[in-house]
Amino acid sequence: MIFYLKLIGESFLFAFQAIIVNKVRTFLSLLGITIGIFSVISVLTIFDSMEIAIRKSIDQLGDNVLFVQKWPWEGGNDYPWWKYMKRPEADMEDLREIQRRSTASESSAFMFEVRRTIKYQNSSIKDASILCVSHDFEKVLPIDLQEGRYFTPAESASGKNVAIVGAEIANKLFSGLPAIGKEIKIFGNKLEIIGVVKKEGDDLFGNSSDNQAIIPVNFARNHVDLLEVGTTILVRAKPNVSNDELKDELSGIMRSVRKLKPKAEDDFAINESSIITREFDAFFGVIAIVGWIVGGFSLLVGGFGIANIMFVSVKERTSQIGIQMSLGAKKYFILYQFLFEAVFLSLFGGIIGLLIVYLLVLLSQNFPFTLHLTFINILIGISVSVTIGLIAGIIPSYLASRLDPVEAMRSTF
């Protein structure tokens, strides 16, 4: 064990000496490894971080929440939009039947979104998101309130003119002053603000509750034609009930409500967040392959650079190799010595590449999403560097171990 530690230490010193003595040559040779590791790990880091941000956004939809809608989320080149376009939108009657018949669901709600202007005295916010919801919406997708309260059952049922606004809307309209109790205008009607949603910032898709107002659907129905908007019924499964079980039950209920014949196709879609996740998994898989291909060329060039350094190193130290062998050094000692040196040189280049990625991570505060340099990606970078060093150093190390001691000692460089 002590022998191998000593061997590794000497190899490290030789590699470090090669870097110090021949700075320009070593830098140019290691540049390929550095660029290769940077290319591969930066691509993996960026897309891992995007995946984390996307999954975080998707998780807000709830992994046990199903969405009964007109349009299915699953796309593709053969997406028959002309057939789906003829389907009816989900309506309040569908919701009532689901609430009455479903035994697998914990809660369900109706919602639709429109874009309207919100006014307060001389201030206004154009094209704001107005989320119109039934009473149990908060049970399906919990709302984190900064202040105030949610709608009461009576307010939801009667369609009272009350609203919950996002933090950004409250800030723009009231300039930091208390929003609770203020009256805003939507659809030309006054609504009293009873709650403010906690500030959360934009997600990767640019969506945020900060610029959204939530109002009772029974109020909005007096001002919006439901046939002209996309409606959704959200259904949360009970604990220990799988999405597939709930989906089968909802399918049966909806077919019964729509009075579909046994052989007739569904005229509704039941979507879930995992559909989005699968689409993005396929996308990120393709991007990762592209990243490896682009980085692979740099790594190949870097491997030749390491091999070049090692051939030169063997040539420079031929007489030294001969002396070591004459003093009893075994062939495997010489082989390991140069092989470890190649690994350390490659590792130096890989570490520089990882440091550049780390600097990119530190600067990611200005990005649309925060970068995360994961331990797995660091491990991949180090592993690839070591592997390139082993592959690039095996031939020069083998040739060094096969030198004749006498001829080697006579050699001059």
Please sum up the structure shown.
This protein has 413 residues and is of the alpha+beta class. Helix content is 55%, strand content 17%.
Average residue-wise pLDDT: 81
**Strand segment tally:** 10
From the helix content, strand content and strand pairing, which structural class follows? alpha+beta
Proportion of residues in extended strands: 15-25%
**Low-pLDDT regions:** none
Quickly count the helices.
14
Radius of gyration: 33 Å
The total number of structural domains is: 2
Instruction: Give the topology string: H per helix, E per strand.
Output: HHEHHEEHEHEHEEEHEHEHHHHH
Molecular shape: elongated
Distance between the termini: 34 Å
Task: Indicate the percent of residues in helices.
Answer: 40-55%
What characterizes the major β-sheet?
A: 10 strands, mixed
Can you give keywords for this protein?
10 strands; 14 helices; 413 residues; 2 domains; ten-stranded mixed β-sheet; alpha+beta
How do the helices and strands line up, and which of them pair or pack?
Blueprint: H1 2-21, H2 23-59, E1 65-69, H3 81-84, H4 92-101, E2 105-120, E3 123-133, H5 137-140, E4 145-148, H6 153-158, E5 162-165, H7 167-174, E6 183-186, E7 189-197, E8 212-216, H8 217-220, E9 231-237, H9 243-257, E10 269-272, H10 273-316, H11 318-326, H12 331-362, H13 375-401, H14 405-410
Parallel strand pairs: 3-8, 5-7
Antiparallel strand pairs: 1-9, 1-10, 2-3, 2-9, 4-7, 5-8, 6-7
